[in-house]
């Protein structure tokens, strides 16, 4: 018989206390029948997001404070449930059965629950950050009034001592949604006393679970580096153990398949042969609901709401036809979701960028060197003296910034550096606002990040190599940082320059000439050549495809002729010109389509770009170029009859 998940969703319960404030109590009800074996089995079935919990339960020196960093509140509650259930079974704790003694005028539901359950290891109070903030403000006076908390509602129905202030022995769960506000930032500085005062209150509790929830379309893979530092800060101050609970790149599709199987079993619903668990899991995974396991249960209940009994007949795909209307997902779009896979930075570099084969080769060679050195360190051979500082030069529009960012992302994804803190700044951003400010500003960037892309680095220098005092100060500090951190950081300078660039556009030369120490600290130089007319045509059609336009193939020859002429100009913008031509072609197509003044338009009409649209766009661009260069004539180029 097939085994199902032990936990299908967290048991979040709510009660109202019989006190003067009529406080609402929310707590997690921990099941008795879940233990470490249940967790292991669930992870094996597909709940891989909880794989880090096993080590915590088995740990000899059990943690008191546990940070659970998650992209979803529901999954965070599940993690707390697994952990607390595992610790309860580990210590052979049993769930108590409370007996209410009714007295005259007092029913069972009126009993003050505060005296009954708050120290129970099978019921974990949930304390929301807003509640903790209010209590800190009321209890500690006005010391936090400047943080903006004083505006958070009146004190109506707020007890001076909330129910959870008596929870000083058993487990508690604190949920933090607004991470920055909870920590109390003021002028960019962390207000340590707010954080410490709030969490120190629970220093005698057996377990303090802290859910740090960061909702994001890309989930926690794109966590803010500031949040990462604050998470680490919290771990150090409370000697907290840390786990990460994330549904991953597939957004939990394999896991939600098992959730559906388990709910069918619980509801005693048989499933017809050929039922598509994969389809239902994909629909659920790409919904925006926060409580997806609960949503899965409600979806099934809705599908069988008109049945006389759950065993009436096996459930089929047709029973869930209403989901297509609700989710607005067509069969075609669903197939896209099924095959959707997040591209890695390495794949984007290789597959999405047209041409630049030599550039790709050089970038991946740098990554290989980093891998090679890491293997040497792991085998105890010793540290390498490889300086990870690189220069990317080329004409405008040759994707230097894009490649620099991808190179940094590859380093992040493949763990090539001690940490993955990434930043891309403009050269001018290194300069301070006043004398003495540029050096610490530059130093701060190197202290805060591990992968540093300095785009348009020449903007740090104003006029040639003669720079102002702000620039000189920043460059001097830059030299120091490159000397100290060139082996534990990735530093990329990108900008216009190189052998085939006109003297006017060779702006990176002024940056390199600003200080003799810059050139000697750059390990490799990657040159981005201008695109050929053939590559420009590929870029043009590729951009159109990505934006769901259908280009007339007859336009290809005219586009080639246009770029064959444009590439001879010193002001040729490479990839940017392909984008500009597409945007102008779209404008011409829009004018053509809307001039028909129809009531309704077909989908194909709003996607199709004809040869005449592209021809008209080329004529407009060539005329604009002549006007900008001081001419005023108009001539037809690009298309030949």
List the SSEs and their pairings.
Blueprint: E1 12-16, E2 24-29, H1 36-45, H2 53-58, E3 65-70, H3 73-90, E4 123-128, H4 129-140, E5 172-176, H5 179-183, E6 185-186, E7 189-190, H6 192-200, E8 208-213, H7 225-237, E9 241-245, H8 253-266, H9 277-285, H10 292-303, H11 322-327, H12 331-339, H13 345-352, H14 357-378, E10 389-394, H15 400-413, E11 422-426, H16 438-448, E12 451-455, H17 469-485, E13 490-496, H18 508-513, H19 516-520, E14 524-528, H20 533-546, E15 550-551, H21 556-566, H22 575-594, E16 608-609, H23 611-628
Parallel strand pairs: 3-8, 3-9, 4-5, 5-8, 10-13, 10-14, 11-12, 12-13, 15-16
Antiparallel strand pairs: 1-2, 2-4, 6-7
Helix pairs in contact: 8-9, 8-10, 13-15, 14-15, 16-17, 20-21, 20-22, 21-23, 22-23
Keywords:
single chain; 641 residues; alpha/beta; seven-stranded mixed sheet; five-stranded parallel sheet; 23 helices; 16 strands; 12% strand; disordered C terminus
Describe the structure.
Helix content is 42%, strand content 12%. With 641 residues, the protein is α/β, with parallel strands linked by helices. The strands form 4 sheets. Strands 1-2-4-5-8-3-9 form a 7-stranded mixed β-sheet, sandwiched between helices. Strands 11-12-13-10-14 form a 5-stranded parallel β-sheet, covered by helices on one side. It has a two-stranded antiparallel sheet with strand order 6-7. Helix 8 (253-266) crosses helix 9, helix 13 runs antiparallel to helix 15 and helix 20 crosses helix 22. The longest helix has 22 residues, at 357-378.
């Amino acid at each position: 018989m097939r085994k199902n998940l032990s936990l299908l969703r967290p048991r979040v319960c709510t009660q109202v206390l019989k006190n003067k404030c009529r406080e609402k109590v929310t707590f997690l009800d921990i099941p008795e029948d879940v233990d470490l074996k249940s967790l292991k089995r669930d992870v094996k079935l597909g709940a891989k997001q909880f794989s880090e919990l096993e080590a915590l339960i088995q740990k000899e020196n059990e943690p008191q404070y546990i940070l659970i960093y998650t992209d979803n509140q529901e999954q965070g509650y599940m993690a707390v449930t697994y952990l607390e259930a595992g610790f309860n079974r580990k210590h052979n704790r049993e769930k108590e059965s409370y007996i209410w003694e009714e007295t005259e005028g007092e029913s069972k539901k009126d009993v003050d629950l505060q005296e009954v359950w708050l120290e129970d290891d099978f019921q974990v109070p949930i304390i929301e950050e807003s509640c903790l903030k209010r209590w800190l403000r009321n209890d500690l006076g006005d010391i936090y009034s400047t943080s903006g908390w004083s505006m958070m509602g009146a004190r109506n129905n707020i007890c001076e001592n909330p129910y959870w202030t008596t929870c000083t022995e058993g487990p508690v769960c604190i949920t933090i949604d607004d991470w920055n506000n909870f920590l109390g930032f003021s002028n960019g500085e962390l207000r340590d006393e707010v954080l410490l005062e709030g969490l120190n209150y629970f220093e005698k509790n057996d377990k303090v679970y802290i859910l740090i929830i960061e909702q994001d379309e890309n989930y926690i893979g794109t966590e803010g580096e500031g949040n990462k530092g604050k998470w680490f800060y919290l771990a150090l101050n409370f000697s907290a153990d840390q786990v990460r609970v994330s549904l991953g790149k597939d957004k939990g599709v394999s896991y939600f398949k098992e959730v559906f199987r388990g709910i069918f079993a619980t509801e005693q619903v048989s499933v017809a042969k050929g039922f598509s668990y994969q389809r239902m899991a994909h629909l659920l995974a790409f919904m925006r609901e926060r409580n997806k396991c609960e949503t899965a249960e409600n979806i099934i209940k809705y599908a069988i709401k008109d049945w006389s009994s759950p065993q009436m007949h096996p459930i089929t795909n047709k029973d869930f036809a209403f989901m297509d209307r609700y989710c607005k997902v067509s069969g075609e779009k669903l197939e896209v979701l099924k095959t959707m896979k997040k591209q890695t930075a390495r794949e984007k570099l290789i597959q999405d960028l047209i041409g630049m084969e030599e550039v790709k080769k050089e970038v991946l060679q740098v990554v290989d060197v980093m891998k090679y050195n890491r293997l040497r360190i792991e085998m105890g051979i010793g540290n390498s003296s490889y300086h990870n500082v690189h220069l990317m030069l080329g004409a405008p529009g040759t994707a230097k910034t894009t490649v620099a960012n991808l190179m940094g992302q590859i380093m992040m994804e493949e763990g090539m550096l001690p940490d993955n803190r990434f930043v891309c700044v403009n050269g001018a951003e290194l300069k301070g606002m006043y004398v003495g400010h540029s050096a610490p500003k530059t130093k701060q960037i190197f202290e805060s990040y591990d992968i540093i892309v300095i785009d348009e680095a020449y903007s740090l220098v104003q006029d040639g190599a003669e720079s102002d005092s702000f620039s000189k100060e920043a460059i001097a500090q830059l030299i120091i940082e490159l000397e100290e951190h060139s082996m534990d950081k990735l530093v990329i300078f990108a900008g216009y320059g190189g052998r085939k660039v006109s003297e006017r556009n060779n702006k990176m030369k002024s940056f390199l000439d600003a200080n003799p120490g810059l050139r000697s600290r750059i390990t490799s130089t990657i040159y981005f050549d201008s695109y050929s007319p053939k590559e420009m045509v590929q870029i043009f059609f590729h951009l159109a495809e990505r934006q769901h336009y259908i280009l007339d193939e007859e336009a290809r020859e005219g586009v080639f002729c246009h770029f064959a002429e444009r590439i001879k100009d010193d002001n040729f913008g490479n990839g940017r010109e392909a984008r500009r031509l597409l945007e102008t072609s779209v404008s011409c197509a829009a004018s053509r389509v809307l001039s028909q003044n129809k009531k309704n338009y077909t989908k194909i009409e709003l996607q199709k770009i004809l040869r005449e649209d592209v021809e008209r766009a080329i004529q407009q661009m060539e005329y604009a170029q002549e006007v900008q260069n001081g001419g005023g004539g108009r001539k037809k180029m690009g298309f030949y009859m």
